[in-house]
Amino acid sequence: MQNLLEILWIFVKVNLLSTSGPASVGLLYQETVGSLITESEFVQAVGFSSVLPGSDAIQLAMYIGYAAAGIPGGLVAMVGSILPPFLLILGAVMVLQRLRREVWLSSFVEGLAPAIAVLMVVTAWKIFERGGETGLLGWGIGLASLALMFLNAPARIVVLAAGLLGILLIP
Questions:
Q1: What is the pTM of this model?
Q2: Would you place residue 66 in the very low, low, confident or very high pLDDT band (cuts 50, 70, 90)?
Q3: Is residue 158 within 8 Å of residue 166, measured between CB atoms?
Q4: What's the CA gap between 21 and 27, in Å, rounded?
Q5: How many whole angstroms separate alpha carbon 11 and alpha carbon 32?
Q6: How confident is the model at residue 134 (pLDDT cuts 50, 70, 90)?
Q7: Which tops the pLDDT comparison, 118 or 2?
């Protein structure tokens, strides 16, 4: 029981102090190697969690928990990883639910929409700038994708078509 509480506390702490995923690996290493698992087990855990589909952070947590305390340890580690973001999101939703009829909140959200649109355009522009290796062909695919979006083509189809064109046309 003591070991399960230690596992829970380690993963709650790591997920409160880091953004999870690859950013938490260093902190997780410090917290678990030597106390719960060996260094070779940790390296193996990082390798497996990176290769398997899904969330690296949850898989890494479950692997370490399982290595330390079997199936109960894996489940406790998973709960410890999910609990902090769950509680933060739940708290934000509860606050927003109470404020949803407030005029200033809807105005705030309305003000965010153009800023997010500009942020997306700037990000797209930076991606296009870095895509200089593809030359005019890459710009052509980008402009064709933009045209398809203006023609109300489903976003999934546009992305899939752009990827396929990249495979077929860009060496």
A1: 0.60
A2: very high
A3: no
A4: 11
A5: 10
A6: low
A7: 118
Q: How many distinct helices (H) and strands (E) make up the chain? A: 7, 0
Left, alpha or beta for 152 (phi > 0: left; psi -120 to 50: alpha)? left
Dump strand ranges (E) for the chain.
none
What span, in angstroms and rounded, lies between the C-alpha atoms of 123 and 117?
A: 10
- Cross-strand bridge partners of residue 33: 37
Torsion 46-50-52-55 (CA) sign:
positive
Cα(60)–Cα(51) distance, rounded to whole angstroms?
11
**Terminal-to-terminal C-alpha distance of the chain:** 57
CA distance 118 to 111: 12
pLDDT in tens, 98-109: 887 888 888 888
- What one-letter code names the amino acid at 158? V
C-alpha 48/C-alpha 41 separation (Å) is 10
Residue with tokens 């546009």: 158
pLDDT of residue 58: 87
- Locate 86 and state its tokens: 């769950």
Cα–Cα distances in Å, from 140 out to 5, 83, 136, 145, 154? 56, 45, 6, 8, 19
Residue 163 amino acid letter: G
